[in-house]
Amino acid sequence: MTSLLEARIEAKYFGDKHVLSPLRLSLSHGEVVSLVGASGSGKSTLLRIIAGLERDYSGRIALEGQPLQGRSPEIGFIFQEPRLFPWLTVAQNVAFGLERPSAQAQRRASELLVEVGLGGHEQALPKQLSGGQAQRAAIARGLFGQPRVLLLDEPFSAVDAFTRMSLQQLLVRVARQRGVTLLVVTHDIEEAVFLSDRVLVLQANPGAISDTIEVRLPRERDRTHPELARARAEVFNALHRVHAL
């Protein structure tokens, strides 16, 4: 597949701490890739660099060959917590950044809320939502700007297991319908292999990609399929190796 986004990191430091060593990451159009690794391996830092939230590093981020400097509307970000503004309605949160959303923007926000299963909640306040509903609203907000790449930093870690599975299926379905490429940081091996076309394993001190595991299974996926069991075992073994370093 043609490369959509390329990240070439030469080095990233926090003070004297060497966080990321030379690292190459490419994402293809419509691909889903997960990053797994021990805490401190630089997964979230890498996401923040790609998002333009962290600029003190050596390297280059390019979208279809064009270097990116700072934030880009082409790249969306969904955080671990929904981070909804409590004084805004759900629809206003989705369209946040537009002081006076046009009728078209309001329609797009409503359409996204229907897509993520929150139709009829446009005028609700965040405090009226469950944790899973709040994260659905966060997904809608992440998609509102029509990004080509969506970065997600442990987006489902705060919800129960059943809600998590439902949100995983929702994310992949909506992303495929909209042609969005996904890069997901997760500590959950099962989540990584269920969501992804590729799982990248990062070693720590400093962070670098040590293994790439391909998940050779089309959508829609059956969680009991032997290919997912094979991929889970391969990711587990790769993580065991990097923890032993």
Question: What's the topology here?
Answer:
Layout: E1 3-14, E2 17-20, E3 23-28, E4 32-37, H1 43-51, E5 58-63, E6 66-67, E7 75-78, H2 90-94, H3 103-115, H4 131-144, E8 149-153, H5 161-178, E9 181-185, H6 189-195, E10 198-203, E11 208-214, H7 226-244
Parallel strand pairs: 4-9, 4-10, 7-8, 8-9
Antiparallel strand pairs: 1-2, 1-3, 1-5, 5-6, 10-11
Helix pairs in contact: 3-4, 4-5, 6-7
Task: Please describe what this structure looks like.
It is a single chain. This protein is of the alpha/beta class and 245 residues long. The protein has a single domain (3-84, 148-244), classed as Rossmann fold. Helices cover 35% and strands 26% of the residues. The chain is built from seven helices and eleven strands. It has helices at 43-51, 90-94, 103-115, 131-144, 161-178, 189-195, 226-244; strands at residues 3-14, 17-20, 23-28, 32-37, 58-63, 66-67, 75-78, 149-153, 181-185, 198-203, 208-214. The strands form two sheets. Strands 7-8-9-4-10-11 form a six-stranded mixed β-sheet, with helices on both faces. Strands 1, 2, 3, 5 and 6 form a five-stranded antiparallel β-sheet that branches. β1 (3-14) and β2 (17-20) form a beta hairpin. α3 crosses α4 (131-144), α4 packs parallel to α5 and α6 packs across α7 (226-244). The longest helix is centred in the last third of the chain and has 19 residues, at 226-244. The radius of gyration is 18 Å and the shape is globular. The model has no long low-confidence stretch (mean pLDDT 92).
